[in-house]
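2.7 Reproducibility. Because tokenized structures are sensitive to small changes in the input, we list the exact sequence used for Response regulator transcription factor, including any N-terminal residues retained from the expression construct. No trimming or masking was applied before prediction.
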Amino acid sequence: MTPTSNSTLNFIDAFTLSEKTNLNISILSLRDLDDFQLDSSNIPDLIMIPIYQYNDITRILEQEQLKDVKIAIILPNLHMKDIIRLYEFDIDGYFVKNMSLNEIISGIRFINEGCIYVYPELAKALHDEFLTLSSTLQSRPDGLLTKREWDVLLEISRGNNNEIIANNLEISDKTVKNHVTTVLRKLNVNDRTNAMLLAYRKGWI
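Resulting structure tokens (single pass, no recycling of outputs):
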């Protein structure tokens, strides 16, 4: 497929990403947005936009023509101010500028499968920053999850895999897998990342 932008992400251009994923990928700068016109005959599968501060998101979301297009943002680093507030928005992917080509391709494919992609180190940075905001936690809905399921959700939010969760909670891998499946079903989400994001947005963890 032919990409709709020749901009680059860490020297990786939209043509390369489109070729490697067999998708129509655009990389637009914030300046590109002012003149960008969506071609209804060639709608991108994903538009990736580098941002530099929290307020840049507002400019993106104000673009009515992008409302029905999958959008991913590219952060300049893992320490951008207000990083946790970015998760308030309905964004399909959270990338970081220095990611490798394979990591980017993996993230794009994850989004194409209907999931929200968060760069793993970014998820950890999100968790670390969230700890400073723990005083704002809201009460958890009664009966939504059992105490053990809340424990598992907290472990998921820390980016831990099933083996680590099993060790931390002193339960078997099979039990962890069952708990994770139940948590996803009860929260009505498709994957661990979306479970984490929902919990952060609701202030449950």
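DSSP finds nine helices and seven strands in the chain.
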